[in-house]
Amino acid sequence: MSKHICKHIFVTGGVVSSLGKGLTSASVGLLLENRGLRVRLQKLDPYLNIDPGTMSPYQHGEVYVLDDGTETDLDLGHYERFTSGPLTRQSNYTSGRIYQSILQKERRGEYLGSTVQVIPHVTDEIKSAIRGVATSDVDVVITELGGTVGDIEGLPYLEAIRQFALDVGKNNCLYIHLTLVPYLKAAGESKTKPTQTSVMQLRQIGIQPDVLICRTEREMSEGMKDKIALFCNVERRAVIEERDKELSIYEVPVSLSANKLDQIIVEKLDLETKQLDMSVWQSMLNRVFNPRQEVSIGVVGKYISLSDAYKSIYESLDHAGIALESRVVVRRIDSEEVERDGADRALAGLDGILVPGGFGYRGIPGKLAAVRYAREKKIPFFGICLGLQCAVIEFARSVLGLKEANTTEIDADTRDPVVCLLDDQFSITDMGGTMRLGSYPCKLTPSSLAHKVYGADEVLERHRHRYEFNNAYRQIFESNGMRFSGTSPDGNLVEVVEIPDHPWFLAVQSHPEFKSKPTKSHPLFREFVRASLDHKDRRRGS
Ligand code: GLN
Fold first, then answer.
1. Distance from C-alpha of 273 to C-alpha of 294, rounded to nearest angstrom
2. Are 537 and 351 in contact (CB under 8 A)?
3. What per-residue confidence (pLDDT) applies to 542?
4. Candidate from 313, 465, 469 with most ligand 1 atoms within 8 A of CB, to mutate
5. Which of 152, 131, 130, 155 is nearest to 143 (CA)?
6. Which positions are catalytic?
7. Closest Cα to atom 7 of ligand 1
8. CA 273 → CA 2, 270, 276, distances in Å?
9. The pLDDT of residue 4
10. What is the CA radius of gyration of the chain?
11. Which pLDDT score is estimated for 281?
12. Is 5 helix (H, G, I), strand (E, B) or coil?
């Protein structure tokens, strides 16, 4: 029997950041999985935070949470939406984590008196992080390197992935480099020089890319591709144009496969695979391109100006639209605008209202106003995490008459702490990794809306929060029309609330947006959007 050999693909980026390395890595993963290979994706981030959990959305966009509770980069969201291989704590490393592990070993004396250095100790630690996902049940590991070639903090990673090919054999490694081919209006043409320069930087370190993916606004001429191939020492067919997609990011794998990227990878890594069959993906895309109707959903949050802060929520709304052959037009509404202009003005004309997760006081009054507007005007409402907490605070204030009801996150001395810390969170002082994180079971009440939507008695959803509904108030809420339709299996933690006397009012303490896929919309998002379509019809009819 031949020894199992795991192949490695490394994805780097040059010229500028935000080229879509995550999407490209996920797309490569999808194509290889589709050809029958067992693929694992991994992201290495050169910054010094241990994980992105303590970083502001302004710095980092959404923090994506895995089943095992790891707080990760949002690119892992793309990985999960495009591929099916499990992601774990080993799927995302930062320099902070790499160094933390090295420093702990140093304190334990594991380096036996030697000087601890970037080469070989940091590079060894990085290589062992890569090897950690290359288990015997995996055919290909795709490792994406965060940042841009030329960044000082990325150097140890480039050195590590260079060495990696020496360790496992050049034939078992493939380097994909993403670059930008900018169009210069004044010159009236696209330029290849930035690509040449960034490949030169890579080659200086000792990495010769096997494939170049050129991100462009305009079509590249054959002559330009010839030139890039020659100057960058890359095979001509492996210079691949990747033009901006106007309609959907889900077109990326199809366009890469049209440029034979999967075939090139399979040949270069000498992999035996099935033929590519994109029919399921393509029929999903056909739905994206041919919606039968439109629906307008307002997302009322505080990081609205940032396109990445609620990434998975926007994606999940798109997935719901795909499932219902509808175009979901998302209106991003700054909760402070609702506070300033009033809900009537800020939220007019919406078919559904979603309040996403968040932290801290700013924006809360506007979110509460949005909940109230949706509840009273009977507009479909979907609350997520902080959105649930706002839904119960608003209910306590408006329906139960507890005018000062609050979460202790905002007012530690409130008379009516309807949302508060539970005992096990009380004594924690560290910020990083100390929330209720990861997958937890939730038991659903038969005949509730949640039960009907999920079509299951028990479900698993991911969490990322500290505060919980305060059980001392359960009874008074229930006797006044709010239903607790999902709890932890022991009944202790409130997971889902709904208002039966409303067309569609449901909020969850978890983050269902982390489990939706373009080919399999999450039922909560799908049914929320369906209810919003119904609301639109009702509005039109009346
Ligand atoms: N800030 C709230 C908590 O910690 C909600 C968190 C969230 O929405 N992810 O409980």
1. 40
2. no
3. 65
4. 465
5. 130
6. 385, 511, 513
7. 357
8. 17, 10, 9
9. 80
10. 25
11. 96
12. coil
Helix (H) or strand (E) holding 45: strand 39-45
Query: For the chain, give me the number of helices (H) and strands (E)?
Result: 20, 23
Q: What is the dihedral of CA 74, 77, 78, 79, to 10 degrees?
A: 110
- Please state whether beta strands 458-465 and 436-444 pair in parallel, antiparallel, or not at all (unpaired): antiparallel
Question: Coil, strand or helix: which one is 490?
Answer: coil
Quick one: which of 491, 505, 495 has its CA closest to 535?
505
Q: Which string of b and e fits 489-524 if b means at least 16 CB within 10 Å?
A: eeeebbbbbbbeebebbbbbbbbbbbbbbbeebbbb
Q: How far is the CA of 310 from the centre of ligand 1 (A)?
A: 14
Beta bridge partner(s), residue 178? 13, 213
Tokens of 88: 């774990």
Question: Whose Cα sits closest to atom 6 in ligand 1?
Answer: 465
468 CA → ligand 1 middle, Å: 9
Beta-carbon contacts of 69 under 8 Å, excluding residues fewer than 6 positions away, are: 433, 437, 438, 439
pTM (2 d.p.):
0.94
65, 311, 313, 386, best to mutate for ligand 1 pocket (most atoms within 8 Å of CB): 386
Task: State the pLDDT at residue 427.
Answer: 67
Residues of the chain with pLDDT under 50: 1
Using CA positions, which residue lies closest to atom 3 of ligand 1? 465
Task: Give the pLDDT score at 2.
Answer: 59
Q: Which atom of ligand 1 is nearest to the CA of 356?
A: 8
CA 357–ligand 1 middle distance (angstroms): 6
What is the number of alpha carbons within 13 Å of residue 320 lying toward its C-beta?
29
Pocket test for ligand 1, best of 71, 409, 420 (most atoms within 8 A of CB): 409
In this structure, the residues whose C-beta lies within 6 A of any atom of ligand 1 are 357-359, 385-386, 409, 464-467
Instruction: State whether the Cα torsion 99-105-107-110 is positive or negative.
Output: negative
